[in-house]
Amino acid sequence: MAVATVSRGLQSALRRGITPRTEMMAHEAANMKFTPWIQWAETCRTYGAVSPAHPIEQFAMATSAIWSHLPPYIRPGELIVGARLRAPQDSPEVGGWVPDGDAYVPEYAKMVPPDRADLKAMALRSLISPMTAHCHRIADYEALINIGCEGIIGRAEELAKDRSGEELIFTQAYIAVHKAVMQLAANYATESLRMADCEEYPQRAKELREIAAICSKVPAKPAGTFREALQSYWFFYHTCSWDMGRHDQLFIDFYRKDLAEGRITPEEAQELIECLLIKAHRDYSEADSNVSSIHTLTLGGLHPDGSDACNELTMLYLKAIRNVRLSRPTVYVRLNTTTPDEVIDFAVQMLAEGLSEPNFYGDEPIIRGLERVGIPTEQARGYALGGCTEVVSPGKSNWGSPNGWINLALLVDDVIRETAASDEPSEQTLWLRMQQHIDIVADAVRDTTIWMDETSPLYLGFSMFMPCCLEKGLDLTKGGAVNTMAQYAAIGLPNAADMLYSWSTLVYKQHESPAEIIARLDDGDEAFRKQVKAMPKFGQGEPEVDHLAAKLVKMLSEALESRSTPLRKAIALGHLSGGQNMHIDYGRYMGNTLDGRRNGDTLADSMAGSQGFANRGVTNTLRSLYTLDHSHLQGGNVSTIWLAPADARTSEARTNIVALIKAYVAMGGSQLQINFMDSETLKLAQAHPEQYHGLMIRIAGYSADFTNIGKTLQDEVISRLEGLK
């Protein structure tokens, strides 16, 4: 049966949810404004100001007091509870981030060591942009749910007997925080009973008493049922948050046991999943309402033994995501050569219906890349995605965030200009200089990472939910994880490869003067710009360009991986535009370049090619992408392809897209995200936003409502579709 492609501007008018309960809640979530958390702010003011001698003690006392005293808030109809009351929807204070990539370069330049003028200069000209020592993480939800707070406290009390100094303080903080989480749940149990006694509808009163019974058990004790596991998870996530992990793996045993013992039906399980997804959208963030990258959900993938991990919950989750149709969380389906066709087909059908989720990740190259830098195979197979598209090891790692960005396009532009000015501008000279510049950047990345690690504040709010940190008595930033890497994301690979191809063609094939090439480029010679713009580009399936891109990726990756820090065993490479949309700001800092860019124009938004140049069909775009060795992009990467809505309108058309995705994975591709959209619709949405509210598209490693992202980014997104065919 053909699937009608629904205009995303009409999505908000469609029914959401498997039951009237989740339909109501999903509509409310989709239309809410992200006003401030008023109870949270008041509780923090009242209980957060403590100042004992040690910062870990200060954190433990404040956290314990805040979570123990935060008033419970239960919305009508909720089955999974745990929320913070927001200010009224008509409040003038509404959170929201317009991710247009403005002014990030000078902000991140502040993150370099203050005594390193050389690194400061590199950052100010946008060659490198350090960001943070820690960011995207996934707590050890498996241990937390299956052990429970009482079990974790018992283990901490045992360890405390033989500890002293800061290790003892850290262990005592663990105890205090988990007691606070237990008290938070107990407060919800009390509130549920109070509400049940006042409830006029018997069915809702019964539900509230069931909630009270569950909150009286979890997360203090191990979960025993599917619903208990979801509720326990939410209390932990509500407390430490960030990325969500592999839910179909985390909850499958609970679901199967309940199903076998007659406690649940698939429809009841899906309703609970929808309740959880709705909470993830509305009850996690106070602001950041425009983007989805603040928490990420992973499905599918592999078991530790290498077998396919898709199960009954994989499809239930996809159906629930399809039903609620909310901008968060970001959803990835991990793929391998044995992933069931029904999973991929259903995912493609979701995209064809106008959703911006899910997205895809090929397992093989990511796992191979993690193994190469020393991650054990079983742990590598358990990776999940965090943030935009960063690779994370749930509950075990301190890696998963771009510690910063590298402007690969600027690096190559520097090399080309130096080569042109040299006495011997040969191809050999070019690549020798390339290696030298890559080594300089890799050293800068290493030195900046060391400084950030040494000066970073403790990450106690997350370390308290990583039992591996408890075992070591160390915060994540001090080595508490099972293993630690850094990740740096390159920007502008397609631009860099296109520039190198233009240079090689003009100088080494056509024997034009290097000095004259640079002069014409800098003078803004329009005829010359059109000449280089018309040359073959990455994303068009041109082998010569593609192999230049592959060479750059391998050189930069090997340079980073060969460098370690006292905390981090390696530096992994990724390629993003990122939630910060660094490709826009980096472009502002660059002049005319040999790929046909004008001064100030944006760099490529993804690895799939520069805007408007991946114009020889999606097959050629994917051919360019799998020329790259994606195991050298194990930090996480983004490849966006655009298809017309008609490309998935029929069953036959969707079958072709499924085959395309499977071929991409089989050929060694990793991340892939698909927008079914045309430029005419985007232009209409820009001109008439009130008619297109809810027009969700995949922008970078995140989805957003096109009408809420600001004109700078809107124009850049539209430019990606110009010239495509």
What does this structure look like?
The chain has a six-stranded mixed sheet with strand order 2-3-4-5-14-13. With 725 residues, it is of the alpha/beta class. It is built from 29 helices and 16 strands. The N terminus is likely disordered. Helix 9 packs parallel to helix 12, helix 13 runs parallel beside helix 14 and helix 17 packs parallel to helix 21. Helices cover 50% and strands 8% of the residues.
- Overall 3D geometry? globular
Give the helix/strand class.
alpha/beta
Largest β-sheet summary = 6 strands, mixed
Strand content: 5-15%
What's the alpha carbon Rg, rounded to whole Å? 26 Å
Helix content: 40-55%
Number of helix segments? 29
List segments where confidence is low: pLDDT < 50 over at least 5 consecutive residues. 1-13
**Average pLDDT level:** 92
Give the helices and strands, then pairings.
Blueprint lengths: L19 H12 L6 H10 L7 H15 L34 H5 L8 H8 L3 E3 L10 H20 L4 H34 L3 H16 L8 H15 L4 E2 H4 L1 H9 L5 H17 L13 E5 L11 H13 L5 E6 L5 H12 L6 E4 H10 L4 H5 L2 E3 L3 E3 L4 E2 L5 E4 H14 L5 H29 L4 H4 L3 H6 L10 E2 L1 E6 L1 H17 L4 H10 L2 H8 L9 H19 L9 E5 L6 H7 L29 H8 L14 E4 L7 H16 L4 E6 L2 H9 L8 E3 L4 E3 L5 H11 L4
Parallel strand pairs: 2-3, 3-4, 4-5, 8-10, 9-11, 11-12, 13-14
Antiparallel strand pairs: 1-9, 5-14, 6-7, 15-16
Helix pairs in contact: 1-12, 2-3, 3-7, 6-7, 6-9, 7-8, 9-12, 12-13, 13-14, 14-27, 17-18, 17-21, 18-24, 21-24, 28-29
